Amino acid sequence: GIAVVEGLLTFVDYIMRRYHVVLMVGAVIFSIICMESLAFLGLPPTQNHRVVTLMAIDSQQDSYSEYVDDETLFESILSTKGTKFEGAGVPRLDLGPEEIPPLLMTALKLNNVPHIDAGLESMWAFAGETTRHVFQNNITDFIESAHETANQFPTSFYGVAMNGMSWSLETELNRVGGNDGWIATQVIKTISADGRLRRWQWELRKNRRPPDLGCWFVESIGSSDRKGQFEPE
Question: N or C, which end of the chain has less CB nearby within 10 Å?
Answer without folding.
Answer: C
